[in-house]
Design a protein that fits this description.
The protein has 315 residues and is of the alpha+beta class. 43% of the residues lie in helices and 17% in strands. This is SurA-like protein. Keywords: Signal.
Length: 315
């Protein structure tokens, strides 16, 4: 086993050394002038391989890039949480953090038989490589953010479904260039499923991905289940979003498990991520505003995207 670990560490060093980085030397990502170093990401990957048997199958399969990408995602999210928490006037009470840790959320040994999908596995692996108090604080804050919007949000939107991603992305670009013509543009895209559907949803029926989406934003999201994009792509123009001070009468809080709240709360960070000056090293992939995480460059289009009219004026 020590030989495997040594070989893996050598591989990690090679992976993190390749490719050009952002403006600051040895930076994995720079957010509003604050740098996360490549060394910090590498150290987390090495800790995972040394301490977690479940990671060793990923090492043998040369899939440690998944761990590195998840590490960067979590470190970016950690920085965004600090800003958003202040704006939303929320904080993590030390007693709540202690209570969260007392539940021993990371004590379960992760399976090594491949029964856990890689994406879920690497998230849990990186959780275990982080400082426990920092991880717990982030989870408590994310749960609070989710609770502020779940069952309180209503949205109005135009929606069209197109058969392929290229057509959907082209339509989205046209809509952000001429938002008032969205209905006509959707109709001109062709096909019955491309006809615009003006819809309104509220409370528990609102997909978490739109919980804090900026009004005017245009999403391109895979519409199918299973393989990304297998059922076409949805183009969604968000026309209005309202957040009530009261829970929707039809919302049953017990329908959401407490452990689900942090993953839903991540979407509340989207607007902060879109506004941030973020420079991500391409060795890890690209930042995806729709999913609020780093994705492989080759999967960027299939993972979805979100645009605002102002995006057209960006250099």
């Amino acid at each position: 086993m020590p030989a495997l670990v040594a070989a893996v560490i050598s591989l990690v060093a090679t992976l993190t050394a390749c490719g050009s980085g952002p403006g600051q030397v040895n930076s994995a990502v720079i957010i509003d002038g604050r740098s996360v170093s490549v060394d910090q990401v590498q150290e987390m990957v090495e800790d995972v391989v040394r301490e977690q048997p479940a990671a060793q199958s990923l090492a043998r399969e040369r899939k440690l890039d998944l761990v590195a990408r998840e590490a960067v995602t979590q470190l970016v999210i950690h920085q965004l949480i600090g800003k958003v928490a202040k704006e939303e006037n929320i904080s993590a009470d030390p007693e709540d953090v202690a209570a969260f840790l007392a539940q021993n959320p990371l004590d379960d040994e992760l399976p090594t038989d491949g029964s856990v999908p890689p994406e879920a596995l690497v998230q849990q692996l990186v959780f275990r490589a982080r400082d426990a108090n920092e991880y717990a604080t982030d989870q408590v804050l994310l749960a609070q953010l989710a609770s502020k919007y779940l069952g309180r949000t209503s949205i109005t939107y135009n929606l069209a479904t197109l058969p392929d991603g290229a057509a959907a992305r082209d339509l989205a670009a046209k809509i952000v260039a001429a938002p008032d013509q969205a209905g006509q543009l959707m109709t001109e895209a062709g096909g019955a499923t491309a006809e615009p559907r003006l819809e309104q949803e509220s409370g528990p029926t609102v997909d978490a991905v739109y919980l804090t989406a900026p009004v005017g934003s245009v999403f391109v999201l895979p519409a199918g289940q299973g393989d990304q994009g297998s059922g076409g792509f949805q183009v969604v123009q968000l026309l209005d979003r309202q957040v009530s001070g009261q829970l929707d009468p039809g919302f049953d809080p017990s329908s959401i498990q407490p452990q689900q709240l942090p993953s839903l709360g991540v979407f509340a960070l989207r607007e902060a991520a879109m506004d941030a000056d973020m420079d991500l090293s391409p060795r890890y992939g690209v930042w995806n505003d729709a999913m609020v995480k780093v994705v492989p460059k080759l999967e960027a289009d299939a993972s979805g995207s979100v645009l605002l009219p102002r995006d057209l004026s960006k250099p």
